[in-house]
């Protein structure tokens, strides 16, 4: 990967568009990003990272605040980067999400993030020729071409401030998190988690099986009615089963003995019950025959009464029918008299005519009433039409009144609408003029403020110039003081070197092991600490001078901007012009504020005119329709009235005449029916009386009263018949019992003892039932114990391989997760990361030995952590001067920078080889050079010279003054009041 060109607009501290030409900067292979602290050097690296991945490295990426605070509202924040990856040149353009003022109204709105990718030198296979415009597609394509993620890129290409010094001194957990992000060891963590999850699953399954075994043991103990032992479970189960089998044998013997005793007792009881039952039957037959002899007179009387009742039953029906016919005849005569009275009440004269004549008269009147049915409906319609005529008169009058009212309301509305429209046009014109005058008003107000601040700006320039002169003098004094101290130190360098000599150790100058006359410090000699303090004082003085110069430049820029905006106008002229403009704006605002009211009134007036016009049209139509309908109904009512008067006759109306005719018809029909019913009843009564006389003769009764006395209800007849049949059956049954052969020789006076035999049988039966229950309980218990023993044995055998498998899985899971038999407390993931860290240590050692002139080397250690914590990621330093291995935390500031830089470069080599990414032709190193002395700085610069071999470009980010003298090509970043600026120095 090689960077060509970077452009930033309104990004970080850069307000205007700033351009960095990396091709020009990197022509020598090494360039410097130089500037004051906070001027925006690291922001350029953030811009490169943002263009590639849409994020910035380190803690700055968590803030998500990339837009310049001094940017104009309409100026977009944008980063443009041209680079070549895998021989494909492309242009990346990104804009972050940020808040900007709304173009209309108050408040802010969100400007959405954007990204695009354009191919500048051919299109790679599988990509669209027009480029990409979606954020996710751009990020995915860039990451695919680079072959590394953003975290890896930040560690490999952008070596950020303090990141590797922190990594060098980090604890195992923190170092592990960084290495995981770089080398993607998530799959090994997933393997660890998979083993843990599998162990939990297998433990849960094993616990379920163990619980199953415990349940079978508890059920076996419950059936056995014993407590289960803690040990020798199999022997206990076998003993319980043997005891159960012995109990079954004993119960079976007792059951057989009890059954034999029961059979003998029941046989004796049956014999005695049979003998007793025969005696009882004989006694019952004799007793029943004696009772029947006593009831013979009563049974004779029942027989006579039953025969008379049966003869009367043949006459009862005919007598009842004759009585019913007589009752119906009397009812028919009463009804006939009532119907005659009703017909006479209607005024009809022929009330004594026969049924045929009455029916003929009713038919004639029914036809006459039917002819009047249609006229009744017309009479009802006549009444409705007359009511409608009255309503139509009222409606027509009301509609004509509405027409007059609406006509008066419509007068003058069109003129009012025209006046409102003219006023609205004038208000709109005033609003248009305001849009042109308001910016002018704001411009005059700003110019007035600039005029008021002009004297202060001139004073600020004078004060800044005085501070620059003072700071320059202090810087020169500090520089002369430092040079003087260095000269004095060089003169006393022999004594300084002699102070570090040790008897027997080689002299660093001549190599001799003897030191007979070591040099002694002279009076006024200078040591390293004094020189360092002087250098620090000079640096502070230089920074103060630079800050004073920047402040003076800012003051001059501010004054020039004020004068440019004022264009020679003074405060009095600006005040007069602003007052006149404000009066004009106030008048126009007052007129423009009436727009909403005038528009509403105009719309309301137009709507009112339309509404009144519609109502007037509807009122006129309603009046015309009502009048037309009234005239039509009048003609129809007059013609119908003539027909109805003719049809009603002497009655009030047609309906009354029709009702009268229908009443006469109903009375005629009722009298005809009643007269026919009375004649029929007389005929039926005579017929039934003749039938009754014949029935009395056949039943041998003289009078009907004699028949009624002999008659009995059916229930009484049934009871008498039943009593006689029952007595006959009882007599026959008793005599049949006495004739049975088995009762021969049995006397009614015989006595049989059944009670003692029943008592003995009951006792034998209870003993047998108890024996059977005991046998059944013993057999059931033995069967349950056999079944439970088999299931318990099967469950015990099934759990053994699971326990062995779980023990193996548990031990393996503990080892993979850095526990158990894992003496180094290294998990699988830590083991993989330790291998990567060892590779990094080897790659970084080559750099560190060169930088430290062979003194320091990295040593990877896989020892366990303190107090049993996990290990494998320890990184120490071997000091060849003392031959000891010591923690990296003991290195000095400059040594820590060398170690951090070497570690960063080693990590870059390992990550690039691991990811298989594109060749990294551009590398940035951010800060840390200020901690190095001149000699070490030379060594580091030699290492950096080696990095740019093969066309690689290395960019250094630092404010160290000495680097400005060593590197001819540099990019200087300067602070400004409204944003940083860039300046390329060759």
Which shape, going by the Cα principal axes?
A: flat
Architecture per CATH nomenclature, i.e. the level-2 architecture of one domain: 3-Layer(aba) Sandwich
Distance between the termini: 24 Å
Order of strands across the main sheet: 9-13-14-3-15-16
Helicity range? 55-70%
Strand count, sense and barrel status of the largest sheet are: 6 strands, mixed
Structure annotation, total helices: 24
Question: Structural class given helices, strands, pairing?
Answer: alpha/beta
**Rounded average pLDDT:** 76
Q: At the third CATH level, what is the topology name of one domain?
A: Rossmann fold
CATH homologous superfamily designation of one domain: P-loop containing nucleotide triphosphate hydrolases
| Secondary structure: number of strands | 16
Strand content: 5-15%
GO molecular function: ATP hydrolysis activity
Subunit structure: Heterodimer of SbcC and SbcD.
Protein name: Nuclease SbcCD subunit C
InterPro entries: P-loop_NTPase, Rad50/SbcC_AAA
């Amino acid at each position: 990967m090689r960077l060509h060109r970077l452009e930033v607009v309104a990004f970080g501290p850069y307000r205007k568009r700033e351009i960095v030409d990396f091709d020009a900067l990197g022509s020598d292979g090494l360039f410097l990003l130089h500037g004051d602290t906070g001027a925006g050097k690291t922001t350029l690296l953030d811009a490169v990272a943002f263009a590639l991945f849409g994020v910035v490295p380190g803690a700055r990426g968590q803030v998500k605040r990339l837009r310049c605070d001094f940017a104009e509202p309409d100026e977009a924040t944008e980063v443009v980067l041209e680079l070549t990856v895998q021989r494909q040149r492309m242009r990346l353009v990104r804009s972050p999400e940020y808040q900007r003022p709304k173009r209309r109204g108050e408040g802010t709105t969100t400007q959405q993030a954007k990204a695009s990718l354009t191919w500048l030198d051919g299109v790679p296979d599988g990509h669209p020729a027009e480029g990409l415009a979606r954020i996710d597609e751009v990020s995915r394509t860039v990451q695919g071409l680079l072959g590394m993620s953003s975290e890896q890129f930040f560690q490999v290409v952008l070596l950020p401030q303090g990141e590797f010094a922190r990594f060098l001194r980090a604890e195992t957990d923190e170092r592990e998190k960084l290495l995981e992000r770089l080398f993607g060891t998530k799959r090994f963590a997933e393997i660890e988690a998979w083993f843990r999850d599998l162990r939990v699953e297998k433990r849960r399954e094993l616990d379920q099986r163990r619980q199953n075994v415990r349940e079978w043991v508890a059920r076996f103990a419950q059936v056995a009615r014993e407590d289960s032992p803690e040990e020798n479970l199999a022997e206990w189960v076998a003993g319980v089963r043997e005891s159960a089998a012995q109990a079954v044998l004993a119960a079976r013997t007792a059951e057989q003995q009890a059954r034999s005793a029961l059979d003998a007792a029941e046989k004796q009881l049956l014999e005695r019950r049979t003998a007793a039952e025969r005696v009882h039957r004989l006694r019952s037959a004799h007793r029943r025959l004696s009772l029947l002899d006593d009831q013979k007179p009563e049974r004779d009387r029942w027989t006579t009464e039953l025969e008379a009742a049966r003869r009367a039953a043949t006459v009862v029906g005919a007598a009842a029918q004759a009585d019913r016919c007589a009752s119906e005849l009397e009812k028919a005569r009463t009804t006939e008299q009532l119907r005659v009275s009703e017909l006479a009440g209607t005024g009809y004269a022929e009330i004594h005519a026969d049924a045929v004549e009455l029916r003929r008269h009713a038919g004639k009147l029914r036809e006459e009433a039917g002819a009047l049915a249609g006229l009744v409906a017309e009479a009802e319609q006549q009444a409705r039409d007359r009511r409608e005529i009255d309503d139509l008169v009222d409606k027509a009058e009301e509609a004509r009144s509405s027409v007059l009212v609406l006509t008066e309301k419509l007068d003058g509305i069109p003129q009012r609408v025209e006046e409102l429209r003219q006023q609205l046009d004038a208000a709109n014109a005033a609003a248009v003029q305001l849009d042109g005058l308001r910016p002018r008003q704001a411009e005059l107000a700003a110019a007035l403020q600039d005029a008021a601040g002009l004297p202060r700006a001139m004073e600020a320039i004078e004060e800044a110039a005085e501070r620059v002169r003072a700071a320059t003098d202090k810087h020169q004094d500090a520089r002369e003081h430092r040079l003087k101290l260095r000269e004095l130190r060089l003169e006393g360098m022999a004594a300084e070197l002699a102070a570090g000599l040790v008897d027997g150790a080689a002299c660093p100058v001549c190599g001799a092991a003897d030191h007979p006359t070591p040099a002694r410090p002279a009076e006024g000699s200078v040591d390293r600490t004094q020189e360092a303090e002087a250098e620090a004082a000079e640096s502070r003085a230089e920074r103060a001078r630079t800050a004073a110069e920047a402040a003076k430049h800012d003051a001059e820029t501010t004054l020039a901007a004020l004068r440019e905006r004022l264009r020679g106008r003074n405060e009095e002229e600006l005040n007069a012009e602003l007052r006149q403009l404000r009066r004009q704006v106030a008048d126009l605002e007052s007129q423009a504020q009436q727009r909403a009211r005038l528009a509403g009134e105009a719309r309301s007036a137009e709507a009112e005119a339309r509404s009144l016009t519609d109502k007037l049209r509807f009122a006129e139509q309603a009046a015309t329709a009502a009048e037309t309908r009234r005239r039509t109904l009048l003609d129809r009512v007059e013609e119908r009235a003539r027909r109805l008067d003719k049809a009603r006759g002497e009655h009030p109306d047609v309906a009354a005449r029709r009702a009268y005719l229908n009443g006469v018809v109903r009375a005629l029909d009722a009298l005809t029916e009643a007269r026919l019913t009375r004649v029929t009843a007389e005929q039926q009564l005579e017929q039934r009386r003749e039938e009754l006389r014949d029935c009395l003769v056949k039943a041998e009764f003289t009078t009907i009263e004699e028949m009624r006395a002999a008659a009995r209800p059916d229930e009484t007849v049934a009871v008498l018949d039943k009593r006689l049949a029952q007595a006959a059956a009882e007599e026959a049954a008793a005599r049949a019992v006495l004739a049975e052969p088995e009762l021969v020789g049995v006397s009614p006076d015989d006595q049989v003892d059944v009670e003692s035999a029943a008592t003995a049988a009951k006792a034998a039966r209870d003993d047998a039932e108890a024996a059977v229950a005991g046998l059944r309980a013993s057999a059931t218990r033995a069967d349950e114990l056999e079944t439970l023993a088999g299931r318990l044995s099967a469950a015990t055998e099934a759990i053994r391989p699971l326990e062995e498998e779980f023990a193996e899985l548990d031990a393996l899971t503990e080892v993979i997760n850095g526990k158990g038999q894992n003496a180094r407390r290294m998990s699988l993931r830590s083991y993989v990361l330790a291998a990567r860290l060892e590779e990094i240590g080897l790659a970084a050692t080559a750099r560190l030995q060169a930088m430290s002139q062979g003194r320091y080397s990295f040593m990877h250690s896989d020892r366990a952590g303190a107090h049993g914590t996990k290990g494998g990621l320890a990184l120490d330093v071997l000091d060849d001067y003392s031959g000891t291995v010591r923690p990296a935390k003991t290195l000095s500031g400059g040594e820590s920078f060398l170690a951090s830089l070497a570690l960063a470069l080693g990590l870059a080599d390992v990550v690039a080889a691991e990811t298989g990414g594109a060749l990294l032709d551009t590398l940035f190193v951010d800060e840390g050079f200020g901690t190095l002395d001149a000699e070490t700085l030379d060594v580091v610069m030699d290492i950096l010279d080696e990095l740019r071999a093969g066309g690689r470009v290395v960019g250094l980010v630092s404010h160290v003054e000495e680097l400005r003298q060593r590197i001819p090509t540099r990019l200087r970043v300067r602070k400004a009041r409204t944003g940083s600026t860039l300046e390329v120095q060759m």
